[in-house]
Amino acid sequence: MSKFLTVFFLLFFIINTNAQHKTNWHLMDAQKDGVQGISLYEAQMFAKNRAPRKEIIVAVLDSGVDIEHEDLDARIWINEDETPNNGIDDDKNGYIDDTHGWNFLGNANGEVVIGDNLEFVRIISKLEKKASRTSSEQAMLDKLKKKHDKEYKMASESYANLSGIAEIVEGVHLILTEATGTEHYTEADVKKLDESDNKKIAAAKLIYADLGKQGASPYDLIEATEYFGNQVNFHLNKDLDSRKLIGDDPANFRETGYGNNIVNPEDSDHGTHVAGIIAAIKGNLKGADGISDFVKIMAVRVVPNGDEHDKDVANGIRYAVDNGANIINMSFGKAYSPNESEVAAAIRYAGDKGVLLVHAAGNDNSNNDKSDNFPRDAAPGSPSLPYWVEVGASDETNNAKLPAEFSNYGRKTVDIFAPGVQIESTTPYNTYEKQDGTSMASPVVSGVAAFVWSYHPELTAVQLKDILMKSSVSFKNTKVNVPGSIRSKKFKKLCVSSGVVNALEALKMAQGYGR
To answer: Burial of 244 by CB count in 10 Å (0-12 exposed, 13-18 middle, 19+ buried)?
Structure first.
């Protein structure tokens, strides 16, 4: 096993054996429950004698949403002006049969794009095809090719090594999953298994123990194989061109109507998880609770397994705005954006129409004041627009470990933090999982925004952001670990508000706002 693989598996092992956070911890209250959640249940008690006044539409720009999930189907937006599946653009908005949203990653034949390459790989392909290049273009090409060659070599070697043992590992994982009753079994679960009369379980336990000595588990190895397979087949594949399937002109940003209405493709895990954080039904004894009850989810698919295209992001934002979205959640990002100005124009369009945009800050434990994380509303180091909320991820503690170790941050560019570690939510086919990321923190903020806005629809998006920021629980003078570093800083150095979003305090402030 290579040194790289050993380190990689050790990382997976550490992540997957963290102390388990309680289900719904992110909704709990610090004083009552001892975890730094958003005090949602306390906010509901505060509003118990009032009824929400407006149903808020949240557009989830993501990988798709399982609109038939048992915890989401009642919360999915329905385009009342569109007759389902009649092949006619009834509402004349340019999108045929967009009953629940739109998929910009497909074609009229019902085919969908699942995997795609990274933006920097697309830039390489475009520059290599140019007959002549400027000196700056050549310098960029040389830089990106060096980056690509290094990453592709590592990914292809790792994938080849893992593929050789994939069949054995998958067999072991299946045996242990069936024997323990869960695919997320622990070392303790495996040790409890009775192997005396079952040779398969005995063999599986031996392989499991051997992998554990190397800092891995069967589940980790399967995930690692999938990860490197995606790198080789999609993310770093210079020959891949997803637009051939879609059939659009990728250079024409005025082109709309391409894609199809399949908003729940097979690879909709991420978007479904995001949607559930915002809107999953509470109190039904199924999975985790969503944040806002008076809400509808509009599914807008713009994110493949790879980097999103600027054209799809810009059109996705405009689609959401034009079809009534109040909030747009964007739990995605990339390091390069060749058509940044087109996306920026769509962002301004949304802001001008009174829409609140909420975006995940990224999971590279880097400083967004100094690095690119697209889409963005302003250059690195510049304050965000008044209707844009950039979100970092926090953990359940109120001490030095408050910022999630993976979270991006930025004193000027990251507005607020929100719970983003082991957040349980919906996943396709009526399942539930705990996931980490600023991708989870962003919908926590979107959910709180929808919750508050449903009670106070008189607020503007600008006012709502102001409330979210000012009502956040402040940790400005708390010394915290800087993500990805051995240094520590006061939390006020990591984000604009110096705080973590809080539903109770936001609702209280909204009630008296402007008085």
So the answer is: exposed
DSSP 405-429: TT--B-TTT--EEEE-SSEEEEETT
For 263-306, write each residue's pLDDT tens digit: 999 999 999 999 999 999 998 988 889 999 999 999 999 999 99
Instruction: Assign domain 24-115+249-511 one CATH number from 3.40.50.200, 3.30.1490.100, 3.40.50.1370, 1.20.58.340.
Output: 3.40.50.200
Sequence spans of domains, the chain? 24-115+249-511, 120-235
Q: Which residue, 39, 69, 72, is CA-closest to 293? A: 72
Residue type, 273: H
Residue 352's contacts (CB-CB under 8 Å, 6 or more residues apart) are none
- DSSP labels for 368-384? TTTS--BS-SS-TTSPP
pLDDT at 457 over 50: yes
Q: How confident is the model at residue 475 (pLDDT cuts 50, 70, 90)?
A: very high
**What angle, 0 to 180 degrees and rounded to 10, lies between the N-to-C axes of helices 340-352 and 310-322?**
10
